[in-house]
Amino acid sequence: MGRELLAWIEGIPDVFVYLALGAGAAVENVVPAVPADTFVVLGGFLAAVGDLKAIWVFLATWLCNVASALAMYEVGRKHGRGFFMEGWGRRLLNAHQMERLAVFFDRFGTAAVFLTRFLPGLRAVVPVFAGVTHQRPGSVVFPLAAASAIWYGALVWAGAAAGHNLGRVQEALGRVNLWLFLGALGVGAWVARWWWRTRGHG
Questions:
Q1: What is the Cα Rg of the chain in Å?
Q2: pLDDT digits (tens, 9 = 90+) for 48-104
Q3: With b meaning 16 or more CB within 10 Å and e meaning fewer, what string describes 39-66?
């Protein structure tokens, strides 16, 4: 990171930096293409070389990300069923598929919510469908918060451990995220196959 940029960030009051990092981590659940991991690692790095505190970086990014994920869960719970019952939403999931999806979440929803918090892309989608299938809040909140705490805690630590070598940590994170992305693609392929096979029913 350039010294000029670092000096500029250090000139901003800490509370606004925490809020910006938290907002960046929250956006991912609405726009999956915006990676929350980058903001978390950056916050850890800034805690190592500047005045930020790692614990506050963790809390800001973790709480904001979990809050936005639960907001999307609530949107799915309140409006998801209606969306998929009419218009072009019915072309995405028919009644039979919705029924099968609800059975899956009833059986494996807690594990699915927990594990997909580590997978890019899927981590933003699963809370929505947990809401659509009307999963109990407890079966969503606790695994989601726990998995996010583990992942974000590791990222803040990695960023803080980087010291002045943020580039090396970003390279390592890129490799880890590549493998996680490949895992997400594998799960996505399985979901696509399931969607195609069940499409003709109902």
A1: 19
A2: 887 889 999 999 999 999 999 999 999 999 987 777 777 666 667 777 777 888 888
A3: bbbbbbbbbbbeebebebbbbbbbbbbb
Cα-Cα-Cα-Cα dihedral sign, residues 29, 170, 146, 100: positive
Q: Are 159 and 47 in contact (CB under 8 A)?
A: yes
pTM greater than the 0.85 cutoff? no
- Residue reference for tokens 């999956």: 32
The span from the CA of 134 to the CA of 17, in Å, is 36
**Contact partners, residue 21, CB within 8 Å, separation at least 6:** 39, 40, 42, 43, 57, 60, 61
Our CA dihedral for 171, 175, 181, 183, rounded to 10 degrees, sits at -160
Tokens for 65, please give them. 């990300």
Other C-beta atoms closer than 10 Å to the C-beta of 165 total: 11
Residue 75: what are its φ and ψ, rounded to 5°?
-60, -45
